[in-house]
Amino acid sequence: MASELSLSIRSGRPALPAAGSKARPFILQAILLAPVFGWVTAFFLVPIGLMIWRSFAEAGLAPYVTILTSPVYLKVLITTLKICLLTTLGCLALGYPIAYVLTVARPTVRGVVLILVILPYWLDYIVRSYSWMILLGRRGLVNQLALSLGLSERPLSLLYTLFSVSIGMIQILLPLMILTLFGAMLRIDRHLLDAAAIHGASRWRAFRTVFLPLSLPGVYAAGLLVFVSALGFYITPALLGGPEQTMISQTIMVLASDLLNWPLASAAGVLLLVVTTVLLALYNRFFSLDRMFGGVTT
Amino acid sequence: MTRTTIGDIAVNGFVGLVLAFLLFPVLVVVGISFSSAEYLSFPPPSLSLRWYRAIFSNWQWIGAFLLTLQVGGITMVLSSVLGVPAAFALSRYSGRGQGLLNMLILAALITPAVIKAISIYLYYVPLGLLNTVWGLAFAHTVSGIPFVVINVVASLKNYDRNLEHAAIIHGASPVRAALGITIPIVAPGIAVGAVFAFMQSAQELLVAIFVLGTVQKPLSVKLWEGVQVAIDPTIAAATTAVAGLVLLGLLAVMVVNSRTRAAASVA
Amino acid sequence: MSVVAASDRGRPRSESEAPVARAGVRVRLERLTKFFGRVRAVDEVSLEIPSGSFVTLLGPSGSGKTTALNLIAGFLAPDAGEIQFDGRAISALPPHKRNIGMVFQSYALFPHMTVFENVAYPLRMRDRLSRDAMRARVAETLQLAQLSGLEARYPRQLSGGQQQRVSMARALVSGPRLLLMDEPLGALDKRLREQLQIEIKQIHRQIGSTFVYVTHDQSEALTMSDLIVVMHHGRIVQIGSPPEVYEAPVNAFVADFLGGANLLSGQMVSRRSDACEVRIANGQVIAVPRGGLAETESAAVSIFIRPEDIRILPPEQRPHGLMGTPATIRDVVYLGEALKVAAVVGDQTVSVRTLRSEVDRLAPGREVFLAWAPQSSRLLPAADDR
After folding, report:
1. Were C221 and a residue from C56, C104, C137, C361 both cysteine, which residue would form a disulfide, CB within 3.0 to 4.6 Å?
2. For residues B109 and B150, is the Cβ–Cβ distance under 8 A?
3. What element of type H or E holds C35?
């Protein structure tokens, strides 16, 4: 046994599936993976299958036709996409500089900034949305400040607007944007910036000609991830948005729990699922999962 | 170079502003939770612990907290038991199973909560798992597994496989080598993943609403209802208490992580 | 040593000038110091690099050679001391204004740019050339680096040797008067390395710029340099031409680092104006030229002899005019072009390189007499772990 094992190590084969049988790694792998596949199938895939079936079961394609033709639902879809796009662009504008600074900063600075970025990430969505209710309300801090500085005569209606929803969602998703960008930027060889500098590029030109183009794949990945995450938001638009800012998750909740219209709720769910899956497949095609947090979660 | 330019100052200022944007709202909630006022105002007129006393003497809040602990605890254990072997398979072997698992994990992590909520509701109705703690934990485990897998895969990446080979050469069976040598070394990764799995369960709202209805309320549901009606700082205190709990978890994670790093640098 | 007069000091760069035949920068380091935390990575290093010379910073890893190079490049700011190019202090100048070409250890080629774009990069950043002039200059440089035909490739499509050449071409293209090279051949196999050593040397002769080359490979340093600067623990241990540092090392570290010298430890027993006598471990007293060493009588010293300077004679033979000691052969290793013999003298092992035709005479356990000409040996301070 021992000699066989040492042989297999010398020949570079993994030692765990010992003694030359080709079937064993496969079996071992199957044993290790089966529980997860089983669980995810039982409590995720089958329920979703049920939801898909339910969307067709009672009235065929009718629920889909309703959603895709009725102005009410179309408006919700468009609003959802609009808010997601706004959130993604906002996160990118705020997050890219931070990720860049994290990449080039000294280790101590990097550590502090990383902790400050991650800290709010692990606070409840409810908590973070609630804090914006306090800040942006008619008697909130922002209005108090505006009134006392004479910037405005009357309290501004900041809450329950596109602005408040976007601000709230940007604040919640910004850490995801920063961490994903940072993970991608860390893969850029720092010597490349040295090489650019020594061959005549100022810091700004080195950034523009070398760092920026090399960071673009990370930008696409992070943008896609933030956009997909934003698609399913419920808490934030429900707390910070008005009726004009109703997103698709809210509509599905109302259809299912208040109106008990399961075919319509399921169909809307399927549509949301399709969009999410397509975007995810796109992400998975170009960026692998292990780049997602890349071990930088803490 | 260590020269400071106007560009540097601008960039640093921007970073400061964005960090403030991230953190300030949270600080506001914390501040209000210690307010003595009956209404929401910031900065608070004076400090007091009255809202915390109100929560911790209220059995509804205590019950919600215990319920969250139960669901989160089960989720944490299940996610680890299922996720660790999968992480091993992911980092050790390559094959078609891996790509599929990657995709599944990503899907489980990112599928909108509302889809998970209504689909699991439709599924649980015939199964009779509605209104059960186990039912909620089973559903939360789907979203907990990714955190365990991602963190364990990350720590397996840094792990020198020759340690295990050495154990096998010196007479340990492969299974014993994995249990005795590898598992202890990647234990911090498992712990980090488990804590994350717990935290996502504690914060999850929509599945909890659908599975537990309005009869039993874990913390997230209780908070949600409170946020919609509350005009006094009770909710601020409750959310801060939850945030404090999360911070403790995060702190535990960081302590574990730095220990591992110290151990790794010794080895 | 090629010393080109630094007559063009302060002359403004003309944009249209070809990348050839301009005098290199005269570089001067004055008490240059850099800390990393509490470690002195570079410790009061003073050095004068003549215009147009090929200077190698040689030392083991952690000796401060790469840090010194990064200080010259401007990637690091010195904590103390000064750097001058042609007599002008340049410490305040950021890297991109120092007009340097550099070859990086990992090549640092821009992965999103083709070979052409990589090589054209310094021209785009530094010079305002017309499109045609730029094309011509890049083509010319690619030819110099034997890369013609690969313009449209990306770095990942090139072999290691080709990547190295692209890195060279990029460093050379804008005709910098100073070239820095940080272990540029470290990642290549031996044959390619030796070939590129010759090419780099040829390019140096052609363009006349000053080259500062960092390596830990002593044979590379000996082959290529006009001047070798041996560094250890952040300090300069010795500066000299290759023959100087190889044949007359100032201490045990240099002697050992430049090709595994023998260091016989012993005690000084007498000291005359021209020579000293040293008693080594087996009781033998050996005369050594005194050199510049100022050790007192009865001090512990080392005798330095290169393996190739020792002859192996039969034990009874004591040739006139040669120094030597009886020894016992312990090992004979076949190296191909020569034999490496390990012989025991007292409690020390002496290594000898000899002709392979002698293989029949030599066998482990045989008693022999090791002999060498007195002038090929030198007295060094006792080998300590400096």
Report:
1. C56
2. no
3. strand C27-36
* The two three-digit tokens of residue C282, written as one number: 């087996």
Question: Is A46 in the B-facing interface, judged by CB distances under 8 Å?
Answer: yes
Residues above pLDDT 70, as percent of chain C = 91
Q: How far apart are CA C293 and CA C272, in angstroms?
A: 12
> Which residues, at least 6 apart from C89, have a Cβ–Cβ distance to it below 8 Å?
C82, C83
| Dist CA A256 CA A258 (whole Å) | 6
Question: Is pLDDT above 90 for A133?
Answer: no
Rg of chain B on CA atoms, in Å:
23
B110–A32: do the CB atoms touch at under 8 Å? no
Residue A44 C-alpha, separation from nearest chain B C-alpha, in angstroms = 7
Strand order in the sheet with C80-85: C39-49, C27-36, C80-85, C88-89
Could you tell me if C384 and C341 are in contact, meaning their C-beta atoms sit under 8 angstroms apart? no
A132 three-state secondary structure: helix
Three-class DSSP labels, C102-140? EECCCCCCCCCCCHHHHHHHHHHHHCCCCHHHHHHHHHH
Residue B54 CA to residue C377 CA, distance in Å, equals 91
CA distance A155 to A139: 7
Read off the pLDDT of residues C173-232 as tens digits, 9 standing for 90 and up.
999 999 999 999 988 999 999 999 999 999 999 888 999 999 999 999 999 999 999 999
- Give ∠ CA B116-B226-A159 in degrees, rounded to 5: 85
Q: Quickly state the pLDDT bin for B245 (edges 50, 70, 90).
A: confident
Of C192, C236, C207, nearest in space to C40 by CA: C236
Chain C residues within 8 A of A189 when measuring between CB atoms: 106, 108
According to DSSP, the residues that pair with C55 across neighbouring strands are: C212, C227
Q: Which residues on chain C are in Cβ contact (under 8 Å) with B3?
A: 77, 94
Q: Which two tokens stand for residue A167?
A: 């601000």
Q: Which residue, chain included where needed, has tokens 């599905």?
A: A252
A34-68: burial string, b at 16+ Cβ within 10 Å, e else: ebbbebbeebbbebbebbbebbbeeeeeebbebbe
* Prediction ipTM score: 0.86
Mean pLDDT of C288-312: 80
pLDDT, residue C3, reads 36
**Cα–Cα nearest to B77, from B211, B190, B155:** B190
H or E element: which one contains C334? strand C323-334
What distance in Å separates the CA atoms of residue A144 and residue A137, rounded to the nearest whole number? 10
Whether the Cβ atoms of residue A213 and residue A184 lie closer than 8 Å to each other: no
Q: What tens digit of pLDDT does each residue of A144-154 get?
A: 888 888 888 88
Interaxial angle between packed helices A125-136 and A141-148, expressed in degrees from 0 to 180 and rounded to the nearest 10 = 20
Q: Please write the tens of the pLDDT for every residue from C320-358.
A: 888 888 899 998 888 888 889 999 998 888 999 988 777
Residue among A97, A141, A277 minimizing CB distance to B28: A141
Residue B215's pLDDT is 77
Q: What is the pLDDT of residues C36-58, one digit of tens each?
A: 988 899 999 999 999 999 999 99
By C-alpha distance, the chain B residue nearest C79 is B2
Q: In what order do the strands lie in the sheet with C235-240?
A: C100-103, C178-182, C210-215, C54-58, C227-232, C235-240
Q: Which residues contact C274 (CB under 8 A, 6 or more apart)?
A: C289, C290
Q: Does B94 touch chain A (CB under 8 A)?
A: no
pLDDT at residue B265 tops 80: no
Distance (Å, whole) CA C41 – CA C45: 10
At residue A8, does pLDDT exceed 50? no
